[in-house]
Every structure is written in C-alpha cells, then in structure tokens.
Write a structure and sequence with these properties.
This protein is of the alpha+beta class. 34% of the residues lie in helices and 27% in strands. The chain folds into two domains: 17-116; 123-278, Thrombin, subunit H (Beta Barrel). The longest helix is centred in the N-terminal third of the chain and has 74 residues, at 43-116.
Length: 304
C-alpha cells in the first residue's frame, strides 16, 4: 500500500490549486489591463522594460545590421568600380574621337589652304595623297595615289598650300612618282621677286635646303628675297612661290656667290599635294620680211 508523504496534496487537490492560481493570474492580468487602459498606470513600467531590453535588442540585431551594412558597402564598392571602369573606357573613346576630330580639322584646313593656293593660270587641279616617301641624300621622291587614269602626265607641276613641290617624274596607271625640288637631279628656273633677276634653283639632297649655283658674286640678291617660278620651260606657271633666300656668301677669290634658299613648300611633311594643269602660252615669231624693211639692192639703178 502506497503512503503519501506528509503535507503532500492528492491529485484532485493539486489540480484545484493550479486552477485557482490560474484564475487569480487571469483576474490580475485583466485588472492590470483595465487599469492601464483607463488610467495609464503601467506606462512607466513599460518604459523601464523597454529601456532595460534595448541593449539586448541591439545585441540581437547587431549581426543582421552589420551583415546588411557590409553587403551594401561591398555592393556600392563593386558598383563604383564598375562605374569607374565604364567611365574610363568612355573617356578613352572620347579622347580618341577628339584626336580624330582634331586630325580631320587639321586635314580640312590643309585641304582648304591647298585648294586656295591654285595658281590663277591653272585650268584644272587634282588633289592627291602621298603614299610613300623616299627622302635620302641622293634621292628626294614621293609616290602619290593618282596616275594616268586620272589624267596625270609626265612633267606635270605639283604644288602645296605654300608653293611648288616638284614635278611628276614617272607615271603609272594608278600612281605617280614626284621628284621634289630638293632632289639633286632637279632644278627649276626662278626669278627674284624684288628685281626680276633670273637664275636656277637646284636641289641639294636635303628637304629644307636649296642652292642657287649660277649667280656671280656681284649679283643683286639678298637674304630674305622671295624666289618665284619664272615660267620658262613651260613646266611651272610663272609667279608661283618656290623658296626664300636664307644665305648669301661672296668670296672675293671666287667668281660665283654661295647662295642657299629654304623651300616654301613642306617637302618632308606634306600628306596631300595638288596636281595642276595650265595652258602654256604659245608665241608665234614672224620671220617674214616686210617690203618696208626689205634692204634695197645697191646694184639696181633708178630710172632716168
């Protein structure tokens, strides 16, 4: 037989005590809610509890907040890096376009200057692009992209925006070779713009230096004189700029002066040149003897 311990409650008694406690707690809770709802007596209690629980809430939410902050930080960094790369690529593209625009503007200015430099005697002109350059000490030539199919002919004059470049030396169907003023095998008849003195300008093998080898030491020529094509020979139109005198030396023991000139055309820098056609004037010399100018025959006598 099982004996209960002294003071211990039996099953029904224990259940009644628990129910009584629950009823008391429910009534107390209802009373507190009614009191707080109507008279707000528990506001300070809630404030104390919330204040006391804030560190715990902060501690619980800190990992979540830290994770969100780190995620946003890394996302922002990646976005900034991507934006930086995109902006860098765009800047490089814009700089390349700007360089192209500058090159096109410079080319446009060169072409406009060349087109405005066409001599008045020219009946036709044709723009050509330089394909290859040969600027050795014994050979000063360039190859252009225009040939006989475009009307280019042997000996044709070639100019740029500043003056005469040279003349066509060889002609192909789609290209041509130009011998420059500076070629040692080239010479051009010129005259001094100041006084009309005629002479020849010869190449020296240097693109920035020409020679005037046939003037006496007493010739009237000075540093700074402008040399124009004389038109003799019918290759270059008269009055086209050729060079400017840069040096004059007179040796009393030498019959000829040492004279150097600088070409006005950019022989070593031109990318476009101008081929020109012009009408060569034809001069007919009448060699017939008129009756008034005919000599009288001394043997013929007069009628008496």
């Amino acid at each position: 037989m099982r004996v209960s311990a002294p003071g211990a409650l039996s099953g029904p008694a224990r259940g009644g005590a628990v129910g009584l406690k629950a009823a008391v707690l429910v009534l107390a809770a209802v009373g507190l809610m009614v009191s707080d709802q109507r008279q707000n007596h528990l506001a300070w209690v809630r404030n104390v509890i919330v204040t006391a629980a804030w560190p715990l809430r902060w501690l619980v939410h800190s990992p979540v907040v830290a994770g969100e902050w780190l995620g946003a930080t890394f996302a922002t960094r990646e976005r900034l890096l991507e934006d930086n790369r995109r902006l860098h690529d765009r800047q490089a593209l814009l700089e390349l376009r700007l360089l192209r625009f500058e090159a096109l503007e410079a080319e446009n200015q060169r072409l406009r200057a060349i087109s405005q430099a066409v001599p008045t005697e020219a009946t036709r002109s044709l723009m050509a692009e330089v394909l290859r350059v040969d600027l050795g000490p014994f050979r000063q030539r360039v190859i252009i992209n225009q040939g006989s199919r475009h009307g280019v002919f042997l000996g044709q004059a070639v100019v740029d925006a500043n003056g005469i470049i040279g003349q066509v030396r060889r002609v192909g169907s789609m290209s041509a070779e130009i011998i420059l003023l500076s070629d040692p095998e080239h010479s051009i008849p010129v005259q001094v713009n100041r006084n009309g003195l005629r002479t020849l300008v010869a190449g020296t093998g240097q693109p920035d230096l020409l020679a005037l080898p046939y003037l006496s030491r007493n010739a009237d020529i000075r540093v700074g004189d402008l040399l124009l094509s004389s038109g003799l020979g019918g290759v270059f139109p008269a009055g086209t700029p050729v060079a400017r005198v840069s040096e004059v030396r007179r040796d009393p023991t030498a019959p000829l002066a040492i004279i150097r000139a600088t070409p006005l055309a950019a022989l070593d820098r031109d990318r476009e040149v101008l081929l020109i056609w012009f009408a060569t004037p034809t001069v007919d010399i009448d060699t017939s003897v008129t009756p008034d100018s005919a000599p009288q025959n001394p043997a013929a006598g007069t009628k008496r």
